[in-house]
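FORM 7B - TANDEM STRUCTURE REPORT

SECTION 1: FIRST PROTEIN
SEQUENCE AND TOKENS:
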Amino acid sequence: MAALGAPIQFAQPVASAAMLSVAPRSYESRIYSELRPHIITATNDGILDDKGAYGLTEAGLQEIVTQRMPRRMAAWTRKRVVLYAHGGLVAEDAAIQTVASNLDALMMAEVYPLSFIWRSDALSTLGNILRDAFARRRSEGILDAAKDFMLDRIDDTLEPLARFLGGKALWDEMKENATRATTRAKGAARLTAGHLVALEKAGTIDEIHLVGHSAGAIFQAHLASHLAGQGVPIKSVTLWAPACTMALFDALYRPLIEGKQIEAFDLYTLDDATEQDDDCANIYHKSLLYLVRAALEETAGIFGGTPLLGLERDARSIPAAFWRTKRAIWHLAPGPDSKALHHGDFDNDPTTLLSTLRRITAQDQPVAVVQAAVSDRTRSRGANRQLRRRLDLVPAR
């Protein structure tokens, strides 16, 4: 949530946007020292990044997590830490902007955010792959008059081309980066988890929460498994439009939820009709998750595609009994807990943010405080569009 991941036009970060902010100011306007204690960066292979403005050595990470954070939370009634992983198509500047945008409101709600900024920015590359695929498709000719049918046939052509032109390799690399952040001994998430485990066992922190948007769900799956393996309970996991496969959910998330190592689980997805009304770069005429399912995962669309947790059509395979307690809640959007209309909406939709924050705080704070933390600080989408226009993927409007 500290990097709290429209049609997917790439005018906004896909799977990332501002959660909360005081104003649509850029992160450069914030004091570096305010942001430094909330950002953990990883290199391409998941290793803790010690380069750049927000790079951290292992000693620096230890100082932030074991000293600065406990000092800041000392007077809090409940000492909550939220680990956030943004989505798979997010540039570093957009992720840092979200840290700046979220920080004040989360701290006001007594939620301490640690944001993983991991090397996942494939935005411009994916846009180029889709353009190249579009240029190579066969003309639909007479079908141009039948718009809906034509768009589906264009998508059918784009999916194998996007896969062949490098889309699958790109997605595989991104998933590997997300996994290695925890599975490697020097991984950014693995090192952070080590400090959090020690703090939790010492009683210095009370709760650990995980939030992931889009491909951030892949990142968090391995982190959740590692924390549980260390005997540390995870108070809640919230996944917004998760781009992880149903197989990954069944292998890692579901056993932890059913075994109560994850005490509360919230899944947010678009309903299927809304998912199909979304688009990617105004070229592919369904949501990013449909493209991932049909073109970028292990089983391609011609064989039925790879089921994803973030798609309603696939999540329906989870037995109804799984959702019969308040421990696991499925939120369909648009609906009472989320007004999202596009894959990239969840992390800047005030209704989604309010329901997520209230779940994390268990409503033990006055509702007015949580409401203010969200509604008074929602950043304008215009600021996100500005971050993307430099990529020349969409025209300015």
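SECTION 2: SECOND PROTEIN
SEQUENCE AND TOKENS:
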Amino acid sequence: MPGKGKHRRPKTSTLTRGFVAAGTGGAAIALPLFAATGAHAAEQSAPAAAPHTAAVQQAAHSAAAKAAPRTYTVAAGDYLAKIAHNKNVEGGWQKLYEDNRDVVGDDPALIHPGMKLTLGAKSGAAKAAPAKPKADADRASRSAARAEAPKPEQPAATGQSSTGSGFVAPVEGGLGTPYHQSGSMWSSGYHTGVDFAASTGTPVKAVGPGTVVSAGSGGAYGNEVVIKHEDGNYSQYAHLSSLGVSAGQTVGAGQQIGLSGATGNVTGPHLHFEIRTSPSYGSDIDPMAYLRSHGVGI
């Protein structure tokens, strides 16, 4: 019989305690296991993300490098279409000219050795060129055609080589307008040189060794080169589409100095060739007699 004032403490079922312990233990064990599993998953996923991030960064770097503009130094015999083709300029010579118009100037056919050109997109959007009068647009179109024209294959000309004197003909091509032909189209009243038939892009050569005294725009002569020779006379090469030398440069007989064209006051592509006693207009002498006196048979 139970004592007075005392109450019997009910016994907890072993099963219940076991269940609670198991439940509590299960909870205690389950939580660390869950956390460990999550950490393990994080460790497993981290390396997979790293290569992806590196690939994205590398792709961005490559894209930036590709978009970054490059520079190119013009060499003798270069013209815009040739540079654009060789350097894979997107947009061709037109884009190359657009990006370098402040360097090249208004005539895309006139570029000089040593000139620095930008290849590829420039920073910022390209500015639209202002509308030009029709005459200027026509001139730009003709200049662009000259810039794009490839070098044509020229048949070998006979009887135009040096005979051991060190002098050569200025270009491989037939003769056109002769020296001293009279006419109102010339300010002097006569033709001051001799014309050689030559398509745009035909290589033009120095007739003899000497020093370039000028290379650039010559007004009605278009793009011209003037060379002083060892005998004190000067040779002039006019209407060139491209210049391959610069003032002060020493050249040898037969060295390419430019490409023939139709710049200046002309009706079509050809080479205007003069021999002068000074570098200036008006001191011309017979160019054919001069070449023949140096052993060049034309």
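SECTION 3: OBSERVATIONS ON SECOND PROTEIN
The longest strand covers residues 234-243.
The longest helix spans residues 14-67.

SECTION 4: SIGNATURE
Preparer initials: ____
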